[in-house]
Write a structure and sequence with these properties.
single chain, 0% strand, elongated, mainly alpha, 86% helix
Length: 311
């Protein structure tokens, strides 16, 4: 069967808002868990911003006054932040699982109900294996994206904003030096995001074609034996599996290059903070060692939200 008649998964290069509005309707029953995910992302972003500040306080207190009793408050604050962080991480994992499984169930039920309403002509031109892929693998993929996208959107946005505000409040010059990595980081993210999305779509399309081919070969095994088409069917399937391997390798290679590129840019930010902060400490401008350590941590954290939002 020619794929031209039934393969409607061709990437058009633009975001289909109408389609996402239809999918979002299935998330309405889970509004409160999604709100909880957003709140978890907000709290975790605040904790991420506070960790370096507490570390800076401990370092400055220890270097200036030694091991005093005031450090106990800093240690207590650090321990409290760890407990809050761990608690909300556990909470958003539970909420994300609840939303993902619930939306997947609703999508599959709605899709199956819709299949019962379609005319016979719809099934005449679409293989069963292709339909099975849409009702199983693709529904799971869409439903798993919803909770994590809601979490990453809130966490990433507030984390980046909090880091920028904290750095500017600590030292404007050093903050501007660290934020010099933002333009190349944005360029790298946009460049790889488009390619990762394209290769991911090709993988899913080829996967649905392979599933359809499986079903056709099983259903038509008598015809295949009668017409002695074993070699021809094997050749067709090898073409599909080779394409699947090629697209998977392309996606893996893009991911393997993108992640180190982001890490390198984050390391550049840490290096800029260390270099510029060292110069300021040497010139006795008032920058403390604890503040320098905090900037190095902020520089390392700065690239993480952008990387997560680009996935």
């Amino acid at each position: 069967m020619s794929h031209d008649h039934w393969d409607d998964d061709t990437y058009q290069g633009h975001l289909d808002l109408a389609l996402w509005r239809r999918i979002a309707r299935h998330a309405r029953p889970y509004a409160w868990p999604l709100a909880g995910l957003g709140f978890s992302g907000l709290v975790i972003a605040i904790v991420d911003v506070l960790f370096p500040l507490v570390t800076a306080t401990v370092i400055d207190e220890a270097t200036e006054h030694g091991l005093t009793s005031r450090l106990n408050w800093a240690w207590a604050a650090y321990g409290l932040l760890i407990l809050v962080f761990a608690g909300f991480v556990r909470w958003f994992i539970v909420l994300a699982g609840r939303v993902a499984t619930g939306v997947a169930y609703d999508l599959r039920c709605a899709a199956f109900d819709r299949l019962q309403e379609l005319s016979f002509s719809y099934f005449d031109v679409r293989p069963v294996g292709w339909l099975v892929t849409r009702l199983t693998s693709d529904c799971s993929k869409v439903s798993s994206l919803m909770p994590w996208f809601a979490l990453d959107l809130v966490w990433g946005t507030f984390s980046i904003a909090g880091i920028i505000v904290a750095m500017l409040l600590l030292d404007v010059t050093l903050a501007l030096a660290v934020m010099a990595i933002v333009p190349p980081l944005a360029i790298v993210t946009v460049f790889f995001q488009k390619r990762l999305l394209g290769s991911s779509r090709l993988i899913r399309r080829t996967n649905s074609q392979m599933t359809a081919s499986y079903n056709e070969c099983i259903q038509g095994v008598r015809t295949t034996k009668t017409l002695v088409r074993e070699s021809a069917n094997l050749g067709e399937f090898q073409d599909q599996s080779t394409a699947m391997e090629r697209f998977s390798m392309r996606n893996a290679l893009q991911s393997a290059v993108y992640l180190p590129a982001v890490i390198v840019l984050g390391s550049v930010g840490v290096g800029l903070a260390l270099w510029r902060g060292g110069v300021e400490i040497e010139q006795a401008t008032g920058l403390t060692l604890g503040t320098l350590v905090a900037f190095m941590q902020y520089a390392g954290l700065f690239s993480m939200p952008i990387q997560e939002l680009a996935r």
